[in-house]
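Re: your question about Acetyltransferase (GNAT) domain-containing protein

S., sorry for the slow reply, the queue was backed up all week. Below is exactly what I fed in.
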Amino acid sequence: MRLVNEFTITKVNDLDTQMLTLLVEESKSEGFRHLNRLVTEYDAGTNKFDKEGEALFLAINRSDIVGVCALNQDPYSVIKEIGRVRRMYVAPHVRRFGVGRMLMESVIAEARNRYRILELKTDNPVADLFYQSMGFSVNFDLGNDTTHYLRLN
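Result:
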């Protein structure tokens, strides 16, 4: 397969979750469950990334969805100025092409419109390094639901 390094990041307001089937299967084969949760919650209507300050981004190469990353109001905080990075995943065959960085830059730009702090949780060492390279700080004192944060102001 020849890969053309042309990626588009698209903010979606209405997602046909069937379009994520291949990406969900890839993520499950790597032991990740978060994309399956994205689809389940989206289809159930419990998280459509449609509240104020929320967004869902897809990375597309040709007509294939090769990555996803979302922004939610932080469900673990009562402080309205905190956003949460959710469901970040990039297909293995396009990693190291900057897709994750483009997705995260889109989420950060969107978050700056509403939030003062952006938080996330990961236990993946590779993801930890990625988020630190994006400017996130590590603070395990923030509680069980947050491992990294980024001040946006």
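The longest strand covers residues 64-73. The chain has one domain: 7-151.

Happy to talk it through on Thursday.
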